[in-house]
Amino acid sequence: YLIGAWIQGAGAGALDGHRWAGNAVHGVQAVVLLAALAGMWRRWADIGLAVALLVMGTVQIGLADGGDWVGGLHAFLALVVLVLATVIAHRAARALGLGRHRREPAA
After folding, report:
1. Of 25, 41, 102, 107, which is most buried, counting CB atoms within 10 Å of its CB?
2. What's the confidence (pLDDT) of residue 105?
3. Average pLDDT over residues 46-73
4. Is the dihedral of CA 94, 88, 19, 75 positive or negative?
5. 64, 22 in Cβ contact below 8 A?
6. 45 in the Ramachandran plot: left (φ > 0), alpha (ψ -120 to 50) or beta?
7. How far apart are the first and last CA of the chain?
């Protein structure tokens, strides 16, 4: 929303808000990695996903100031980060036994 508002002429405040939100999300990505290390030790696939989330987020931020096609990769990697975060949340919920439970057939 914020970057779209900036593109439509909302001013520098919208761009600043976009940058602030991106940095906040990057901080959350670091917390996800620390939580994975602490809570899922020896579940290397889950830790690997958390590392991938932080790495992709870092690369995505690094591409933010790129022009033309490089800037397009910034937007694409935002989607990659979203998908990774969704996969991590789903796997964590399943590991904790949260989410949908199958109903037992009626007797």
Report:
1. 25
2. 66
3. 92
4. negative
5. yes
6. alpha
7. 51
